[in-house]
Design brief:
Layout: H1 23-36, E1 42-45, H2 48-52, H3 54-65, E2 70-73
Parallel strand pairs: 1-2
Helix pairs in contact: 1-3
Length: about 70
């Protein structure tokens, strides 16, 4: 549709949200939260099995990269 050039670099536009559009989106969501609310602490509720899968690893790594404290609730 040409609304944004890429999801990674949407410019001034908001790209929306989806339930699961790939591992890259987990990191992008956390980056956006960190930019909007700099001192945010993230509480992430998920099953223990979720944290063992690739998505759980992606969420943890993304939070570490932006130095966002994250509490994993299982």
């Amino acid at each position: 549709m040409g609304i944004v050039s890429t999801i990674a670099r949407p410019g001034g536009n908001v790209t929306g949200a989806s339930i699961d559009a790939g591992l890259q989106l987990h990191g992008k969501r956390i980056q956006l939260l960190a930019e909007m609310i700099p001192n945010l602490q993230l509480y992430h509720l998920a099953s223990a099995a979720y944290w063992e899968r690739a998505a759980g690893v992606a969420v943890r790594l993304a939070a570490q990269q932006v130095r966002m404290p994250m509490v994993e609730l299982r």
